[in-house]
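Tutorial, part two.
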Amino acid sequence: MAFIRHLETLVPDPCYSQSFACEIMIDRSGTDRAKRYIKKVYSESGIATRHSVLTDFKDETTPPRLFRQADGSFREPSTGERNAVYVEEARRLIPEIARRTVANCPGISAEEITHVITVSCTGFFNPGPDLLVIDALDLAPSVQRYHLGFMGCYAAFPALKMAEQFCQADPSAVVLVVCLELCSLHMQSRDDLDSIVANSVFADGAAAAVISAKPPAKGERGYSLSRFASSLAREGASDMAWDIGDEGFNIVLSKYVARIIGAGIKDIVDDVFSGSGRAVADIRKWAIHPGGRAILDKIGTSLELQPDQIEASRATLARYGNMSSATILFVLAEILGNHATQDGDSICAMAFGPGLTIETAILDAVVS
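Running the prediction step on this input gives:
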C-alpha cells in the first residue's frame, strides 16, 4: 500500500473578499447586463475570500504589478507578462511549500525523497518547478523528477496515482508531490459569461503531499490510498476547456458543467465502487473539488449526501475559492485536520477538468 504521510498548504498573502472582487469587476464591465450578471454570480458563488499573488486591486498605495497602471487605470497584460509574474512567484512559493512540507512531515527527511512530481497548469518555464524543489531541498541529482502540466483541476489525482505506483514498485520510495496554481494571473475583463464565471471562482494557492509505502507512525495523521478511477463525460467536452491567447489563457467554464456532472455522477461512483467491496453508504466524508457552489450542490443532491459529508469542500471554497489542481489537497487537509475524523474513516475524493474528465479516489484515514 501507499500512504499520504503529510499534507501542507500555502496561499499568497494578498487576500480579497468576494464582495470587493465583485465591485472591481463591475467597475471594469462595459454593459449593464454584464454588471447584473456579475453581481448575481459573485453573490451566489459560496466564496467569502480568495488569495492572489497580485496586489493590483488592494488600493492605490500598493505598487502596480500587472493589471493596474501607474495612473490607476487598468489594462489587459500580454500572456508573456502574465507568465513572467508566474515564473517570479513560482520561484518564491515552490521552494517555500517544499521546505515546509518536509520539515513538518514526521519521520521523513529530505535525504529520503526519491521522486518529485510537480503539477501546474497556469504557467510555463524551464528548467521548471521540479528543479526548484531539487534545489530548495538540496536533493541528489539522481532523484527522479516529473512535471504534469496544463491538465487542469484534476491533475493532483494523476500525481497521486504516479506516487502510489512508485511506492508499490519500490517500498523504499518517498515521493513529494507539489501543486502550484496562480489562476488570478489569467483574469480577463470580458463581458462574456464564461469569463465572468471564471473570474468569480479562480484563485491562487499551493499544496504538497509526501507519499511513502511506510504508514504514518503513532501520533501521526494521514491517509492510505485505496483505489483510483478515471472517467469521461464526453458531452461536456466543450463546456470546460481553455487555450492560450494573446492576453492570458482563454477559459471556457460553462454553467452547464454542474448539471452534466450531477447527472452522471451516480453511474461514475457506482463504477468506482464496483469490485471494491464498498458502497456509497460506507463513505463517511466526501472530498469533492469545489469547482463552484453549483457543482457541490448537484453532487450532494445526486448522491443524497448529508451537509456534513461535504462540509470540508464548502469550507475550502468559502475561504480560498478554486485553486485548480491544488484545491483537492486543501480539502483533504481540511478533513484530516478535523478531530472528528477517526481512524479507518473512508473518504471518496473527486475532481473535474477538461474532457470533461472526472478523477476519483478512495482513501482511508490513518489516525494512530
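The CA atoms of residues 237 and 308 lie 31 Å apart. In part three we will examine how such features are distributed along the chain.
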